[in-house]
Amino acid sequence: MSDRLDGGHGGTVAEQSGSMLAGRRAVVFGGAEGIGRAIVEAFAAQGASVLSVDVQESPGGSSQVRSLIWDVRDERLPAEILDFDPDIAVNNVGHFIRPPTSFVDADPSEWARLHDINFGYALRTTHALLPAMIRARRGAVINLTSVEAHRAIPGHTVYSAYKAALMQFTRSVAAEVGHYGVRVNAIAPDLIETPQVPYADLVPREHEHMWERWSPLGGPGQPVDVAGAAVFLASDLSRFTTGTTVHVGGGTEVAGGWFRRGDGGWTNRPLNP
Ligand SMILES: NC(=O)c1ccc[n+]([C@@H]2O[C@H](COP(=O)([O-])OP(=O)(O)OC[C@H]3O[C@@H](n4cnc5c(N)ncnc54)[C@H](O)[C@@H]3O)[C@@H](O)[C@H]2O)c1
Question: What is the rounded distance in angstroms from the CA atom of residue 117 to the CA atom of residue 155?
């Protein structure tokens, strides 16, 4: 991790206790591990009651955090989620398929899988939960997209297409429900250390110094960095913000193809380290 990301400032806002979400009820889909888990913890630390929904048990259950086992690809939303009556919903589940395969060589049977896990379920959960939010005249939906909703990812073409669809869904539904006091936004992560992308294993020790060149802010980022954006988008801090995307990727989206050289300059034609 770069010095800037490990600055010893006593933790990020998302790791501190507060009351920004006091009295709120948040459901987080995919809340057991990685980014989802950090969001669950940050919401609870800010006073929300949280229902963590996942295919595996979510750790650290308490009176404030409950765990529900459910596969988001199942068509029927369990009654427990509707009874919980959330005014915050985080569609965090999403995956790509390894190994990367060029589109022409892809197996079409994989497209439905990619659709269901990255896009289809989020339509269903949002459709099921919006009516109560509209009735309450209050709600926040947060969709986890990816930098690859905005930028190409060769070898994962269909994944990136469904992430882009989720981003565009975010924009259009936000326009529809805004006047009911319901906001819908997206977070587009990149370079976040999680079980899905375990950079500690993927990057050999002798290449760790290269993080400084791979993104303007170095890296890797941590799930708590995404949780900070989620607290912002769930709370009244963002009460006049809807239909947009917060990028949490160390600046890879804006740097798009430009890399820092060893001498401090920039290149769009990096050489091997
Ligand atoms: N980590 C990154 O750098 C990165 C980059 C771009 C986008 N994202 C997006 O951020 C989101 C979270 O990513 P992550 O890296 O934390 O993922 P992760 O795979 O580490 O964690 C995903 C969580 O979702 C749960 N889950 C998986 N399938 C499920 C299902 N069918 N039903 C219910 N729960 C299920 C898992 O058990 C796990 O708890 C995803 O949408 C991902 O596409 C992450």
Answer: 18
**DSSP at 241:** -
Output the pTM of the full model. Answer: 0.95
| For ligand 1, atom 2: residue with the closest CA | 192
The yes or no reply on domain 25-267 and CATH 3.90.1150.10 is: no
Which active-site residues does the annotation give? 159
Q: Give the pLDDT of the chain (273 residues) as one tens digit per residue.
A: 555 565 444 567 677 899 999 999 999 999 999 999 999 999 999 999 999 999 999 987 788 999 999 999 999 999 999 999 999 999 999 999 999 999 999 999 999 999 999 999 999 999 999 999 999 999 999 999 999 999 999 999 999 999 999 999 999 999 999 999 999 999 999 999 999 999 999 999 999 999 998 999 999 999 999 999 999 999 999 999 999 999 999 999 999 878 888 888 888 887 765
30 lines ligand 1 (CB under 6 A): yes
Ligand 1: residue of 54, 68, 72, 199 to mutate (most ligand atoms within 8 A of CB) is: 54
Domain ranges of the chain: 25-267
Cα–Cα distance list, 187 to 35, 83, 86, 145, 167 (Å): 11, 27, 19, 6, 9
Asked if residue 199 has its Cβ within 6 Å of ligand 1, the reply is: no
